[in-house]
Automatic annotation (TrEMBL):
Pfam families: HTH_18, Response_reg
Residues where 4-aspartylphosphate is found: D55
Residue stretches making up the Response regulatory domain: 3-120
Protein name: DNA-binding response regulator
Keywords in alphabetical order: DNA-binding, Phosphoprotein, Transcription, Transcription regulation
């Protein structure tokens, strides 16, 4: 989804364009509006903006001056200058700017929408061309890439070793030619790719390489980053601002990363046909704290995204349900593999691996002790996962997990482990459905109670701690209707109720449902109800 910001100090123009574009391509274009350059810069600081449609001649700061500030926030942002001025000086200055266009207000809505459509097409072509170019490059030799990945995975698992030798990181980075600054903190991103079923190991590797190329396309220039595959098979990135970025790893850099992750996610869907769930640290962390922050992101993603999907979540450092203390796992490769499948919601892989382990264990009739150890390794892993996921009380009978003697046979015991695992998968699915329903109900209630306030996608996402693009998809998936259409229905419903009160002026009704300009409310109501507000009120008096 792309984001369009309309900026004009004339309310009637801003509101009119907002109404046109708000219904132009609701699933492709998220529309915001501002009545001054200052308000526009506030939008820039809050979320990624892809296209700005702005007047040139505005009090305080002109559109040309605004465009210079825009590039500092979002360098890829395109600007369309909309003005009543036809003087050569304005047109010449606008034409000289990179990624900028110039449209006269007198040319009408059709010309404006055509221009924005051209800009959208240009953006997508640029994305496609960048991907093709990136595919032709090789950034590192294969052996060096593998060595770097091995070392960074080592740091993720045991970053505490850095406390013992503060110069170790600088020496290792230098030897391995790792392009990150060991003296600066780092932002972390964990990505879980929803691979199509039936793909081989090699095919998954090719998909992961394509995802990395998309990542490099969007982050090159403004950020230094390094991507690896963690021990669970998920993608993981380390990021720092490039020398060209201002402000270091401050809150705007985090916003820049989050906004750019939307583009990475949408390109993965558009070009590769797959979704990727992303978890982002809310602030940069020191290198010696990598292990704990990495564990936080894994915990956050497991709780928020279930088996995967196009979601972007940011670690707010709030306590995660059921995760107050770190449980330990049996130090076994089998337990690690099963745990990874269980926590990531990979049901089929888990069941297949469990059945293979079970078959192997039951064949060891001459080594009963090994069979017993295998049972308790898996049982302890399941018991730990139930605690880590906060599922105590949500799973059926788990009392026999650590009591092997309560089972009539080893076959029954391993069958019991499988049933407990199935209950965990079912509970995760139920919790995710319940959580989704609760979130949507809360959003709907907020909309109904705040119709006179800002109900932009960005504002709703901020209030409910969502990424804007994900909120749009999530809401439609759960409610079967676009978020903007739901808001319009609520506004029409409330307006009809208020118009029954003849003591209220039509303008007062419009203000109550979010329309400051009476003419904008009239146009909106007539389009939705087929009558103007006054005509609707007159029909009520006839009944």
């Amino acid at each position: 989804m792309y984001r369009l910001l309309i900026v004009d100090d004339e309310d009637i123009i801003t509101d009119g364009l907002y109404e046109v574009f708000n219904r132009y391509q609701p699933e492709r274009l998220d529309v915001c509006k501002a009545y001054s350059a200052k308000e526009a810069l506030d939008w820039m600081s809050r979320t990624r903006i892809d296209i700005v449609l702005t007047d040139i001649a505005m009090p305080g700061m002109s559109g040309l001056e605004l465009s210079e500030e825009i590039r500092k926030y979002w360098p890829r942002c395109r600007v369309v200058f909309l003005t009543g001025h036809s003087e050569f000086e304005y047109a010449y200055r606008a034409i000289q700017m990179t990624n900028a266009r110039y449209v006269l207000k007198t040319e009408g809505y059709a010309k404006v929408t055509d221009t924005v459509q051209d800009v959208l097409d240009d953006i997508e072509r640029a994305h496609h061309d960048s991907l093709l170019l990136e595919q032709s490059r090789e950034q590192l030799l294969a052996f060096q890439f593998m060595a770097q990945g091995d070392y960074m995975r080592h740091l993720l698992q045991n970053s505490r070793v850095l406390d013992e030798d503060t110069d170790m990181l600088a020496r290792e980075f230098s030897k391995l030619d790792i392009g990150l600054d060991p003296a600066q903190p780092v932002v972390l991103v964990l990505g879980r790719i929803s691979y199509p079923e039936g793909r081989t190991y090699t095919e998954r590797g090719e998909i992961l390489s394509s995802v990395r190329r998309i990542w490099d396309t969007y982050f090159s220039g403004r950020a230094r980053s390094m991507g690896i595959t963690d021990k669970h098979g998920d993608a993981f990135w380390f990021l720092q601002p490039s020398e060209l970025a201002e402000g270091g790893t401050d809150s705007h850099f985090i916003r820049f990363v989050e906004g750019t992750l939307e583009l990475v996610q949408e390109s993965c869907i558009g070009f590769l046909g797959l979704s990727i769930g992303l978890a982002l640290s809310s602030e940069a962390c020191r290198w010696e704290s990598l292990t704990r922050q990495y564990e936080r992101l894994r915990e956050l993603q497991q709780l928020r995204s279930g088996s995967g999907g196009a979601i972007i979540v940011r670690d707010g450092f709030e306590p995660l349900d059921g995760m107050d203390c770190k449980a330990s796992f049996a130090d076994s490769q089998t337990a690690e593999v099963l745990r990874a499948y269980l926590e990531s919601g990979r049901h089929d892989e888990f069941i297949q691996a469990l059945e293979e382990v079970t078959a192997s264990a039951l064949k060891m009739s001459c080594k009963v002790q090994l069979t017993i150890e295998t049972y308790y390794t898996i049982a302890l892993m399941l018991h730990s996962c139930i605690g880590r996921m906060g599922m105590h009380g949500h799973i059926g009978d788990t009392g026999k997990l650590m009591r092997l003697n309560d089972h009539p046979s080893m076959e029954e015991a391993f069958g019991y482990l499988k049933r407990v695992a199935e209950s965990i998968f079912l509970s995760k699915q139920t919790q995710e459905r319940d959580r989704a329903s609760l979130i949507v109900d809360r959003i709907c209630q907020y909309i109904e109670e705040h119709l006179s306030e800002d109900l932009s996608l960005v504002r709703l996402a901020e209030i409910h701690y969502f990424n804007p693009s994900y909120l749009s998809r999530f809401f439609k998936q759960e409610k079967g209707i676009n978020l903007s259409d739901f808001i319009d229905k609520c506004r029409v419903k409330k307006a009809k109720e208020m118009l029954r009160d003849n003591d209220l002026k039509v303008r007062e009704v419009g203000l109550s449902v979010g329309y400051e300009a009476a003419h904008s409310f009239t146009r909106f109501f007539k389009k939705a109800a087929g009558l103007t507000p006054q005509e609707y009120r007159d029909t009520l008096s006839l009944n």
